[in-house]
């Protein structure tokens, strides 16, 4: 049987983590994160950010696992059950659903992230009903060479015990005096090293990052676009994960994760500011050009659903289908949205908002 050569550390007993380099990176990350939290609150409908940014995070996180889809496939899959047959788009949507499930449970459990929530996210993401690994044989391999680079714990009892300890570390703030951002980096490394599930560990681990930041009030809602930064330096991410296992040296890993938070917070901050400006401009134009048509609900619809359809407007504005169709056609003629057709369905795209997402992806 395969045997792990890495002894999982007791995270609560780690010392010497807050080096000068780590503290410098920590100060920058905390400053950027605080600014992001404050700016996000300026968007009047927080559901707009949760829905749109969660889907972008899902797309970026899935790309790390080589699950690649386009913005068009992604949003069309959201619109129509019989839309483009894109397995990748469906997997990305499941990631988004797992993130939102975790956030819902976080609120239900008053700021706790128990293992039941982590297992629930895995089941939703992978559409299966099991949980932590039951059988040995798991090994992480180099995608290019096929050689084994790391063997996680193999015994079922060892995996469950390790996850119980991690659960306690996540939820008991008195166990470690270090800053929550440092704890997030420790939690992520430990989770990926336990590798508790048969599949989907990378994506669940990245969801856990943003849920933990929300649990510790560094964010109000889970909107940090962290997977984009990791995806842009994927080789370094995996190298540093293994470097800690090989050397028990944490500084480079902690600095990497803190820099990713800083970079991501700034990117997300710019994106939110651009969304806010677009909403203000669109609101002004709607009031000027269509004063009888304008409502806050209509504005929210156009930004909560970058790809929208008649049904959405009908339901969210509480109008007839005929009225909803007339509204959207008027907006398309005026250039607020563009009108498209998929099979028998019409849909309408907020092209300027989509351009923001494409710019971040680029």
Quickly describe the structure:
This protein is mainly alpha-helical. The chain has helices at residues 20-40, 46-64, 71-79, 87-108, 115-126, 156-171, 180-194, 201-215, 226-232, 234-247, 251-289, 296-304, 310-317, 321-333, 351-361, and strands spanning 140-141, 148-150, 307-308, 338-342, 345-349.
Any key phrases for this structure?
mainly alpha; 362 residues; Fic-like fold; 15 helices; 64% helix; two-stranded antiparallel sheet; 2 domains; Arc Repressor Mutant, subunit A
Structure overview:
The protein is mainly α and 362 residues long. The chain folds into two domains: 31-270, Fic-like fold (Orthogonal Bundle); 272-361, Orthogonal Bundle (Arc Repressor Mutant, subunit A), CATH 1.10.10. Helix content is 64%, strand content 5%. It contains 15 helices and five strands. Strands 3-5-4 form a three-stranded antiparallel β-sheet, sandwiched between helices. A hairpin with a 6-residue loop joins strand 1 (140-141) and strand 2. The chain is globular, with a radius of gyration of 22 Å. The mean pLDDT is 92.
């Amino acid at each position: 049987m395969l045997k792990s050569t890495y002894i999982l550390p007791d995270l609560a007993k780690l010392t010497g983590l807050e080096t000068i380099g780590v503290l410098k990176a920590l100060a920058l990350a905390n400053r950027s994160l605080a600014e992001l939290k404050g700016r996000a609150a300026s968007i009047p409908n927080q559901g707009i950010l949760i829905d749109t940014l969660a889907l972008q995070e899902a797309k970026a996180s899935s790309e790390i696992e080589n699950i690649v889809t386009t913005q068009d496939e992604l949003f069309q899959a959201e619109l129509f059950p019989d839309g483009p047959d894109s397995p990748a788009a469906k997997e990305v949507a499941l990631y988004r659903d797992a993130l939102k499930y975790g956030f819902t449970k976080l609120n239900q459990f008053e700021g706790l992230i128990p293992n039941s929530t982590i297992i629930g996210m895995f089941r939703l993401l992978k559409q299966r009903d099991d949980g932590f690994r039951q059988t040995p044989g798991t090994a992480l391999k180099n995608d290019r060479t096929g050689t084994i680079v790391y063997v996680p714990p193999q015994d079922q009892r060892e995996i469950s015990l390790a996850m119980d300890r991690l659960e306690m570390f996540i939820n008991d703030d008195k166990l470690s005096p270090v800053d929550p951002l440092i704890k997030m980096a420790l939690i992520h490394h430990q989770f990926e090293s336990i590798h508790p599930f048969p599949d989907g560990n990378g994506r669940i681990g990245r969801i856990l990052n943003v849920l933990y930041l929300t649990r510790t009030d560094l964010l109000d809602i889970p909107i940090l676009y962290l997977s984009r930064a990791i995806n842009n330096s994927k080789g370094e991410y995996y190298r540093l994960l293994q470097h800690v296992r090989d050397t028990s040296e944490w500084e480079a890993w902690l600095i990497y994760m803190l820099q990713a938070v800083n970079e991501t917070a700034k990117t997300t901050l710019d994106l939110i500011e651009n969304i806010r400006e677009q909403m203000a401009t669109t609101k002004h134009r709607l009031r000027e050009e269509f004063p009888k048509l304008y409502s806050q609900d209509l504005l929210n619809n156009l930004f909560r659903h970058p790809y929208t359809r008649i049904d959405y407007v009908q339901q969210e504005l509480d109008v007839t289908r005929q009225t909803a169709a007339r509204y959207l056609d008027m907006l398309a003629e005026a250039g607020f949205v563009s009108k498209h057709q998929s099979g028998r369905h019409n849909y309408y795209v907020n092209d300027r908002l989509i351009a923001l997402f494409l710019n971040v992806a680029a």
